[in-house]
Amino acid sequence: LAKTTQPISMDSYEGQEVNITCSHNNIATNDYITWYQQFPSQGPRFIIQGYKTKVTNEVASLFIPADRKSSTLSLPRVSLSDTAVYYCLVGYTGRRALTFGSGTRLQVQP
Amino acid sequence: DAGVTQSPTHLIKTRGQQVTLRCSPKSGHDTVSWYQQALGQGPQFIFQYYEEEERQRGNFPDRFSGHQFPNYSSELNVNALLLGDSALYLCASSLEQLNTEAFFGQGTRLTVV
């Protein structure tokens, strides 16, 4: 399974754009990149998934360069409620076990 | 549409006891996975059930066992509880035939004293 590396923590202010980068040098050809969000004492919540280039949904964008060895989760105009732990996962979701790292703790200040 | 539901939400057990945790998957989902999350850590995969059989297993001892029922619901059993088993236990469901994301329940907080 591809190992992921992401910052332990990040701080931001309300209204700013936040970019969290994840490194996954050993990503396999059929691996997707998935990001989850987790609030304290709750289960992780799916944010976005992509394979290459750019994916955008109503909450975030995911940028994946051509070599796919990294990816960047972009959260536009964060609010206090975006304070959470964000996990980057690499693999084939659903059918296989998800491998979580320690995640990135995002703290949004007013 | 109910998402993934887990019961109980909290549980306190004594070292050496046995515990059973329950999970109902999201409607339409047929695959259930269980994860253990220690405080401050990411979730760790325990095992996955599909068609009432254990399909994959993480690095957990045999004290951890499970079951999936015909209605796709699942149970996680832990025998001979240790203090180190204290954690948030998460259930996730997904649909086998699609590369869909896994949906997680809110978890069961198990405290072993």
Question: How would you describe the overall organization of this protein?
Answer:
The complex is a heterodimer of chains A (110) and B (113). Chain A has no helices and 9 strands. In chain A, the strands form 2 sheets. In chain A, strands 1-9-8-3-4 form a 5-stranded mixed β-sheet, with no helix packed on it. In chain A, strands 2-7-6-5 form a 4-stranded antiparallel β-sheet, with no helix packed on it. By secondary structure, chain B is mainly beta. Helix content of chain B is 0%, strand content 50%. In chain B, strands 2, 4, 5, 6, 9, 10 and 11 form a 7-stranded mixed β-sheet that branches. A 4-stranded antiparallel β-sheet of chain B has the order 1-3-8-7, with no helix packed on it. In chain B, strand 9 and strand 10 form a beta hairpin. Classes of the chains: A mainly beta (110), B mainly beta (113). Chains A and B meet through strand 4 of A and strand 4, strand 5, strand 9 and strand 10 of B.
Entry keywords:
heterodimer; A: 110 residues; mainly beta; 5-stranded mixed beta sheet; 4-stranded antiparallel beta sheet; 9 strands; 47% strand; B: 113 residues; 7-stranded mixed beta sheet
Give a quick rundown of the structure.
Chain A is an all-beta fold and 110 residues long.
**What is the chains' assembly state?**
heterodimer
Through-space gap between termini of chain B:
37 Å
- Overall number of strands of chain B: 11
- Sketch the major β-sheet of chain A: 5 strands, mixed
User: Cα-atom Rg of chain A, whole angstroms?
Assistant: 13 Å
State the share of residues found in helices of chain B, binned by percent.
under 10%
As a percent range, the share of helical residues of chain A equals under 10%
Strand content of chain B: over 45%
Task: Assess the beta-strand content of chain A as a share of residues.
Answer: over 45%
Low-confidence residue ranges of chain A: none
The helix/strand series of chain B, from N terminus to C terminus, equals EEEEEEEEEEE
Largest sheet of chain B: 7 strands, mixed
